[in-house]
Amino acid sequence: GGAVSLIERQIEVLREKNQNADSRFNELVSIARANEQLADTIHRFTRRLMRAPTRRAILTEIEQGMREDFGVAPTVLLLFGAAAGTDNIGLRFVRQVAADEPNLTGFDSLFASGKPRCGQIRDSLREFLFGADDAASVSSVALVPLTDGEHTFGLLALGSPDSQRFHPGMSTDFLARLGEIIGDALARD
């Protein structure tokens, strides 16, 4: 109810700015810690793939790494045409599709950009990727195109029941690195 001196008001404003700065600093530290943990996880995953002696072992390690290291299930690895090979027989998460598969046209802009994308997708594309059984439980996806440096030969699809796990506003830098690692591992053998 009384008048506030100019100095008291300035001190109050400085305290608010200081609290905002502290809050922002704590947020940045939290993000840095999460990024450090993610970088460590990607490092472990990379070592898994490097130690895999065969293409089939690489495929198995990709599936196990997504589930165990990254906590992502369901995971689907689409391999187009000849890139699929025969090493994926019996591996549930790997699917071979023809390069001219009509459902792939729904991902044309993704393949053209060559960059991962996160968020929600149409029901028909979700069913195409994850199958009718798993599609109903997938609320958000991360889609990572796989290339050999020049051509897209596959797509890694990560699903989550949490609608905010993979959202359009999230950074995709680590997903891009993950795609490069997987692409290089599959191209190596």
Descriptive labels:
alpha+beta; 5-stranded mixed beta sheet; about 190 residues
Count of DSSP-assigned helices: 5
Shape: elongated
In whole angstroms, the N-to-C terminal distance is 78 Å
By secondary-structure content and strand pairing, the structural class works out as alpha+beta
- Biggest sheet architecture: 5 strands, mixed
Query: What is the rounded Rg?
Result: 22 Å
Which percent bin holds the helix content?
40-55%
Helix and strand element order: HHEEHEHEEH
Total strands: 5
- Largest sheet strand order: 2-1-5-4-3
Low-pLDDT residue intervals, each spanning 5 or more residues: none
Q: Roughly what fraction of the amino acids lie in strands?
A: 15-25%
Overall pLDDT confidence: 90
The gist of it:
This protein is of the alpha+beta class. It is built from 5 helices and 5 strands.
Descriptive overview:
With 189 residues, the protein is an alpha+beta fold. Helix content is 51%, strand content 16%. The protein is built from five helices and five strands. A five-stranded mixed sheet has the order 2-1-5-4-3, with helices on one face.
Helix-strand layout with pairing:
Blueprint: H1 6-51, H2 55-69, E1 75-80, E2 94-97, H3 108-113, E3 117-119, H4 123-135, E4 140-147, E5 152-160, H5 173-188
Parallel strand pairs: 1-2
Antiparallel strand pairs: 1-5, 3-4, 4-5
Helix pairs in contact: 1-2, 1-5, 2-5
